[in-house]
Amino acid sequence: MERLLRNRVEELNGMDARRTAIIGIHWQEDVVGGGDMRDIFRAYVESSNIIPRTAGVFDAARKAGVLVVFVNAAFWPNYAGLIQNNGLFRTVTERNNAFIRGSRGVAVVPEFGPAKSDIIIEHSRMSVFHGSDLQSILIGHGIDTVALTGVATNVAVDHSVRDAAQLGYRTLLIEDCCCSSDPSYHEASLKSLRVIATSILTSDVFLQQLTAQQASDAAV
Predict the structure, then answer these.
(1) Most CB atoms within 10 A, among 35, 70, 75, 86?
(2) How many CB atoms lie within 10 A of CB 217?
(3) CB burial class (10 A; 0-12, 13-18, 19+) of residue 168?
(4) Is the peptide bond before 114 cis (omega within 30 degrees of 0)?
């Protein structure tokens, strides 16, 4: 592991906002709002300031010209097509029609806007790339760098970081804009992802990178 960590990408060498997308995973009512599964994440969400902090990052990214994409979990009525082959998917079906397409629970929470320029899509598996339009959207916008945020670090965020890296994107994970139901799960995923993501960075560092590139572009 130490050898792998020594080969991490330490310098991002500029961040072109026009070729960058920030992805918000599960910032939706049923997860962090007033919806059915909020109890799983309530303690951390309420104690960590994660929603205002992450909303601020999204707002700054919009102003810099970064593409904003929200990906929310959503299923067909009666969970048609959802194979209950694990504890996560089985729990979803026990939650009183949570995550049903067209319901309030699959809407982005109001703290994040969303803005008219944002793209909102849905997915129904672990990774936000699986069975969604995300890859086509990123290709269509000429994106080569993705910055990921969201819930939960050890499930959808983890799977999505791995897919983004495999698809060839410069993959950034903003660690203080992600959370799990337990801090130990969050930290365990970060430990593995440090050798898979291009970079794991804080929201302050991400915003510094954006600001530095904007200053560089203005000076040209």
Answers:
(1) 70
(2) 13
(3) exposed
(4) yes
Residue from 105, 104, 101, 75 nearest 90 by CA? 75
Chain segment 55-109, per-residue pLDDT in tens:
999 999 999 999 999 999 999 998 888 888 987 788 878 877 889 999 999 999 9
Q: Which two tokens stand for residue 158?
A: 């983890």
Separation between Cα atoms, residue 220 and residue 205, nearest integer Å: 23
- Other Cβ atoms closer than 10 A to 140: 10
Q: List the Cα angle 196/197/203 in 5-degree steps.
A: 150
